[in-house]
Amino acid sequence: MLFPAAIISAALLSIVSAAPQRRAPAQVITSCTVPNTAALTFDDGPWVYAYDVSKSLVAAGAKGTFFLNGDNFECIYSDTNVKRVKYLHDKGHQLASHTWGHRNLTLLNWNQIHDEMWRVEEALIRIAGVQPAFMRPPFGAYNDLVREASGVRGQKIAIWDLDTGDTVGATPAESKARYDQAISQKPATIHSLAHETKWESVSNILPYAIQKLQASGYRLVTLAECLGEQPYQWTQAPGVKDPATWKC
């Protein structure tokens, strides 16, 4: 028995929606690949200390990577956060996805994962005109479904090889010791995790890390630069804030 094409198409669409096709999983990045580079990355913003992080980096001739949320500590569409995101982009730092609401993606279904990813991507396109090429899952938690979703979205998953421990109880002295230990092993590259929402990380640990890393011969660059890749899948002109749609 033959069925009209419209019926077949509708049936196929329902199957794909209910059980997504297997796709090539996203590559998981932990370490840099360009020798003598260090990528300092900052999660959980945009937040009030974004300017301080940027100023410390720029003063040292360095750039950083900011993995931003849409609605974690504060809505990304607030006037102050729109200014912060634009400022970071204008200063040459890399903007990347930390998902919308900082949820554990491994506890979500296919559609929920995509919603968490897309909503922050949409915000970065609107505010800065960039579609990020890298995504960092909250808590560093990912599974096969998360990798497939990132792969569909054309992104790579960025983890790290040096955790400052600033959100799990490490003191500033302990975080500095982690940098010292890593540097003492003379790795070709370093990819560190810190959080722009922690004042001690921004005011105390970051200046120490910058001085130690540069003294040891590392160039402080964005994650994309330390991989020899592009930071964004594509770019366009930023949008103009629309209160009706730019909201959390």
Automatic annotation (TrEMBL):
Any GO MF annotation of the entry: hydrolase activity, acting on carbon-nitrogen (but not peptide) bonds
Keywords tagged on the record: Carbohydrate metabolism, Cell membrane, Cell wall biogenesis/degradation, Glycoprotein, GPI-anchor, Hydrolase, Lipoprotein, Membrane, Metal-binding, Signal
Segment forming the signal sequence: 1-18
Protein name: Carbohydrate esterase family 4 protein
Gene3D superfamilies reported in the protein's UniProt record: Glycoside hydrolase/deacetylase
InterPro entries registered for this protein in UniProt: Glyco_hydro/deAcase_b/a-brl, NODB_dom
GO CC terms, sorted: plasma membrane; side of membrane
Membrane-topology annotation of the record: Lipid-anchor; GPI-anchor
Keyword Amino-acid biosynthesis set for record: no
Cofactor: Co(2+)
Keyword Membrane: yes
